[in-house]
Amino acid sequence: MSYCQGCADRQAQLNERDAEIERLRKKLSDEWETAEKAIERAEAAEARVNELRDLRQNEMKMHTDAHRELTQERDTLRARVAELEEKLMVPK
User: CB-based contacts of 51: which residues, under 8 Å, 6+ apart?
Assistant: First the structure.
């Protein structure tokens, strides 16, 4: 094997390695991009879950408040009905 042939073989090996390095860089870049997109989707999903949780808590509070108000109104009306019934009672 001549010196020039050895240099050409070595250059071919280096070119193959460079091509493999570039292929692996591209693959890593693609995988990184995919991972970043997955992270973005996960963050968006987490934000939506938090939003829905907050809405649910607000709905529960509104329901509890409405129930409390209706209970108070019911009790007031019952007391008023009892008061009116007592006034309407005719002694025998």
Answer: none
